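Cross-posting from the modeling subforum.

Setting up a comparison between two proteins and wanted a second pair of eyes on the formatting. Protein 1 (sequence, then structure tokens):
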Amino acid sequence: MVRSVMAGWCCRWRNGSGLSVRGVPGVGYHRGMVTAASPSWTHCGQGAGPGDRVGCRGIAIPGSLRCLAHATPAEQTAYLAFLSPGADLDLRGTTVTAALLQQIHVRTTDPATGRARLGDVLFDQATFDGEVGFSSTDFTGSVSCVQCTFDGNAWFDGVVFARDVSFKAAHFAGDARFDRTTFATDVWFVETAFSGDAHFTDSAFGSGWFHRASFDQDVLLTGAVFARYAAFNATFARASWLGPLSCGETLDLGDASFAARMTVLAAARKVMCRRTQWAQPATLRLRHASVDLTDAVCEYPLAVAGHLRPFVTPTGPLDESALVNVPEQPRVASLQGVDAAQLLLTDLDLTGCLFAGTIHLDQVRLEGDCSFAEAPAGLHRQGWRPVRLTRRSTLAEEQHWRSTRPASLPGWQLPLPGADIVQPSALAALYRALRKSYEDSSNAPGAADFYYGEMEMRRVDPHTAPAERGLITAYWVLSGYGLRATRALGWLLLAVILTMLVMMLWGLPERDTPSLSTGTLTSHRITMTTDSPDPENPTGPVTERLTSERFDKSLRVVVNSVIFRTSGQNLTTTGTYTEMVSRLTEPVLLGLAVLAVRGRIKR
């Protein structure tokens, strides 16, 4: 049921005189819906002219053909005499002055509490002339103020609404004060216009609905507490501060329009900002919440930040009792459709954030403790072969894609039912954009993980050319795309050991062969010829070749190979080619290790 009107007691006349119900003579009630579009009451008709056959639309009071405003003094006195604490009140279409409202307040005040008490109240299409006050009033029944007009300031300080309240299409021409007001169930401000300031300081709500409402001046909800749902699908012309407020379930700012600078301080389970329009710089400081910014429009800088400590109001810490089991760090659920060029994210949990479809993602600014989902690190078994995953930051979309693959490893996040699965080619573009964002902010360690993710997606993308995929795979195996120093050092150590072993077994000659010089003496002239015999390949048992002397010579050959120098050692043919290969591969592995270390410590 759409609560554009107030469910409650609908008042109708019966046989002109009617019945007396709950202290109001001549009025009969039945359960139903009251609509301002098709009012079911007898009009006063006062002031009707030739072109206006209706005149005053106020409901005629019992015992009279006129509304309370146009009734004779005697009729007004008779009507007010029947009012008592807890009475129902029906002033639909009536113009109510401050003096008349004061008389009603006096008649309905409970002497035991000193507070006015009313039952079911119908103010549809009523007009309150001048400044009116309902302060310290208890409404024990439903209250309907559909299309009601407040010409001056309206005071509802300390009011208690025990049941549903509707201000649909109402107009507050002056300030509206609902400070310390209690809305025990639902309150509806649908299409309500606030021309002055709207204050809800330290108010308590069951659920609050502000659909298509408009705020022309400041709106203040400092210390407001919504037990369940709060929806501000409204237009804010000058509002500059919303909160701090607490919401047990969802704070809905979807389709809202903020035409001025705005600061929102909220502790909630969810914050919905779908299609919200921010026409000026704005700040969202949140606690506990999962915020959805899908298709939000931010024409100026929009900062979304986590608030590490509880909000403090002038009366003390904000009530967050409904959120005790929710993590304090807020989370971002989606940035899809957002132009991130004006977006700043600080101290947020991005483990489940959807980035696919974000515009200018490479220009988003990530500061503070912004955490992403991590790969399920450790040793896993995939079929017959073991697979070891290193710890790195990943996007939720990659987690979802990997979890849906055949023979998927455990630990990857599952997508929500019906969610689109982003493919590797698109994931590579997302990683590339985020890598550029980190690089532009001089955060090399942060950019490293996104570079790794980009290369991973290129490696597993079925559309990548086979030659390119082979090259990327080799790069991954040898050094983790130049980001895993331990992997490169491991391969370097293995290459050194193998080179030394080959040198000791086959690369070093059996023995050092001295140079042989021969000469001819002719008439005191000597001609010398020096010949270096070919090194002798080692022979004999393998164990006899593994000596400390041969180890020392092999070590010098390998060390010189790593730094591109020749050892000057006589080698066999096998040793010569082995040294050539090592002088090519081992310096490359050392360089990859140095590159990986530099990528982790560079700022």
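Protein 2 (same layout):
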Amino acid sequence: MRGGAALRMFLAMKSSKRAVIVVACLVVLGLGIPYSLVVAPHPALAQGQQGVPASLATGFNTIREDTLHADLTFLASDALQGRMSLQTGDEAAIQWIASEFAKAGLQPAASGSFLQPVELIEYRGDRAQSYVALKRGGGEKQWRFPEAFGSYHSDVDVTAEVVFVGYGITAPELHYDDYQGIDARGKIVLIFDHEPQETNPASIFNGTGNTRYATGRVKILNAQAHGAVGVLIAAEPNRKHLSNQERVARIGGSITRAVPLPSQALAEDELHAPAAVLSDAAAKEILATAGVAPSELQAAIDRDPKPQSRALPDTQVTLHYRNVSVSSGKTYNVAGLLGGSDPQLKTETILFSGHHDHDGISGTEIWHGADDNGSGTVGVVALAHAFAANAAHGERPKRSLLFVVFAAEERGLLGSFYMAAHPLRPLETTRAVVNFDMIGRNETESEQTKGLIDIPADTTNRLNLIGASYSSDYNRTVVQENKFVGLDLDYRFDRDSALNIFFRSDQFPFVLHNIPSFWWFTGFHPDYHHTTDTADKINYVKMAKILRLAYLSGFQFANQAVPPKFVANPGGKAAK
């Protein structure tokens, strides 16, 4: 029975309505064909299968639209209540994934279990009682949400002098360091968001695309490494795009729900300095003693690029955060292993990943999360069955394959950051990461993307690959295998710095560990993070083609003599 474990969980609940819903799901799922019986070529695959090596055909043929439809109809059903992290629906999804890995014949990858525990702290900030305060000239000014806002998993007060440290970046290989000549120990640092020269195609920071240094987490960790006790983040004053806050506000849906989504944090996280995001007006006032205007500071940095960091005289800031509730809980990364066939290469790993959580339920509204990321979850499960079936009836990959569906991605990539810090297999011998996040829709214009990125007229056969700048070898393999599948491959998001795509999914923690890691993504649409992201809107034909391409590419990653190389400095020349 498909989804048996999850269905039994809900049938055991007292709610008769929920039981009726689950029975309906059971009827739908009963129409699916078990993976173990799908060994003959499906008529719909005939054209795409031409030229696929016979030794790989068994697994290739298990990837079918009807099976994907059945699984995703269950995973995005009302019964799973939007799969909010730490809630019942997501727990059912976790059990379903583990059950599917077991049925596929994978080995438990987490100390004899399919489940890697991830301890979380959940908290709800008190916006009315939280503020950022500036003390200067004997007076004090306070800013609250939305002029200045942040959160922390416990009540906190941090007061310190402020230093401006440009973009907050330390990039030794580029000979660029905003902290050069600055003592940030015991200070609160004020930094610009994003990176220098991001509209310049010749920038040392990967031209017009983002590098690993652009994200807030990396910048806060860098501030901690330099002894800072807090971080203030200001949007670049000369930006040619929306600020991150303006961009997020455009999404609507779960972002604007009546009861805000709770925040979550890893109970054991290396990131511990509180941070705040400032409005342009608040940042300008704090920078008033810098000697030059914020726009001139950015222009001077971007011109060379050359740091313009400095102390801010008579400037002391307090970060004062309070919460209305704080609790702890446990969720799980779900992980299964298919051991490699080669005595030497089986110690190396190819990782396939997605995330199982979404935005849950509020009142009677359910954020179904069919595309985000039911599609990626179902994709990882489908590939687990495909590779296992092929190992039983055809060829087993030489390197080992690790299949992981991460927890709490929507709350800040928490499950993947946890696994990167507590790997189930060594990161130094992990050769490639194939991450699925939203692989089921046709990309169409939405409020989030309007005016920020060009969308092709026809995206019915289009797959966005994100991360190619960091591994041309990886990309070359995917392009080579695409001759058997025929998707339109798109790299627009590697040249984008407005939407912050590069670090918005679970491949990113592994990029930080120098592992070739791509996000496979079909693009945004108006249903993104809305209750209308439902299973009936999925393009199952394209989704199946994407998974077939991942299957063939995964075999190449697992078998090729020389694995993909990682490019640490995709921007090219370093600053002198």
